[in-house]
Amino acid sequence: MKKLFILLILISCAPSKDKSTMETKKDESFWKEKLSPAQYHVLREKGTERPFTGLFFNHFEKGDYACAGCGQKLFTSTAKFESSCGWPSFYEKSIPNAIEERMDRSYGMNRTEVICSKCEGHLGHVFNDGPKPNGLRYCINSAALIFFPDTINK
After folding, report:
1. b (16+ CB within 10 A) / e for 72-111
2. Residue span of the structural domain in which 67 resides
3. Any domain includes 69
4. Sign of the dihedral defined by the CA atoms of residues 88, 89, 92, 98, in that order
5. Cα–Cα dist 83/130, whole Å
6. Any idea of the CA torsion for 94, 100, 101, 104, to the nearest 10 degrees?
7. Average pLDDT over the chain, rounded to whole?
């Protein structure tokens, strides 16, 4: 049942085959039509899902995690780790330029926001309290991700 649910999410969130749709900025009506309300809140309004509620916070199947907005590959399951923070955590991105970092001084905090370099969707934040080898913890909202299972190694 769980695999069927993930498959349905993948089908409904699959990126468009038309590359030109992601090469230009899209207006908010495009995003509201394409994304679920939770995805829109996180990716376009810089929202955050409640801890321990997202689909991928306790998910450790082998595969790749991509942006729910545009389908760009962001992380692999080999870089995912249990951080006990309530959100999916990764110690490294899968492609060097897939994620951009910006200063976030909202709510009186100094944090580093991470966004998708392709569609500029808000993903979460990166912190310096992760495991070796680099000490990073990319704390990412499940609603910002779609998962592609590794079907070769099953």
Report:
1. bebbbbebbeebeeebbbbbebbeeebbeeeeeeeeeeeb
2. 28-149
3. yes
4. positive
5. 8
6. -130
7. 85
The answer to whether residue 7 is domain-embedded is no
How many folded domains does the chain comprise?
1
Q: Quick check: is 9 in a domain?
A: no
Residue 136: CATH number of its domain: 2.170.150.20
Tokens coding 3: 């695999």
Which tens digits make up the pLDDT trace of 26-58? 888 899 999 999 999 999 999 999 999 999 999
139 noted as active-site residue: yes
Q: How far apart are CA 8 and CA 2, in angstroms?
A: 10
14 within some domain: no
Residue keyed to tokens 């829109």: 40
Neighbours of 128 (CB within 10 A): 9
Residue 86 one-letter amino acid: G
d(CA 145, CA 69): 8
